[in-house]
Specification:
The chain has 156 residues and is α+β, with helices and mostly antiparallel strands. Helices cover 46% and strands 21% of the residues. Strands 3-4-6-5 form a 4-stranded antiparallel sheet. A two-stranded antiparallel sheet has the order 1-2. Helix 4 crosses helix 5.
Length: 156
């Protein structure tokens, strides 16, 4: 998990300090920093960091971090819903079973949908249980890394 957190920090720094107009360039710069990742992993990282492409006004587009690198107020409330509601998470293959406090499964499931974690394909919520389906190629560890990055202090 530490490696992903460190990689995300390096991606931010590279984008802040360089004009990057494609993923190949970013992959090369990451490799120079000691991170050998696939294009798919980099795409998930960019999505998690909410990196966008903006026009430079004359010759094309380049990657940019959100203007406000801080979490929005509405996102903070969804993160609080997740923190407040989750009791435990267990996996069997690409299916996760999330136990929540009674009556919290719907709000936690909705919050996870809004947070749009790239590892989650979909979920079904009951009263105190959520079934999560991970995307093809995603692992429990990938999701837990996203939790650590986007929802710090969550107890898994």
């Amino acid at each position: 998990m530490r490696e992903r957190h460190n990689r995300l920090s390096v991606v931010k720094e590279i984008i802040k300090n360089n004009r990057i107009d494609n993923q190949d360039t970013l992959l090369d710069l990451l490799k120079e920093e000691g991170f050998n990742v696939t294009q798919a992993t980099l795409s998930r990282d960019l999505k998690m960091l909410k990196v966008g492409k903006i026009s430079d006004g004359w010759s094309g587009y380049y990657y940019s971090l959100p203007e406000n690198d801080l979490v929005s107020e509405s996102e903070k409330s969804y993160i609080q819903d997740v923190r407040r509601g989750i009791i435990s998470i267990e996996f069997s293959g690409n299916v996760g079973v999330v136990k929540t406090r009674p009556g919290h499964a719907n709000s936690v499931g909705f919050a996870l949908d809004v947070l749009n974690l790239p590892e989650i394909l979909g979920s079904i919520a009951g009263d105190d249980t959520i079934f999560l389906i991970l995307r093809e190629g995603m692992t429990k560890e990938d999701l837990l890394e996203s939790f650590q990055t986007r929802i710090p202090e969550i107890d898994n």
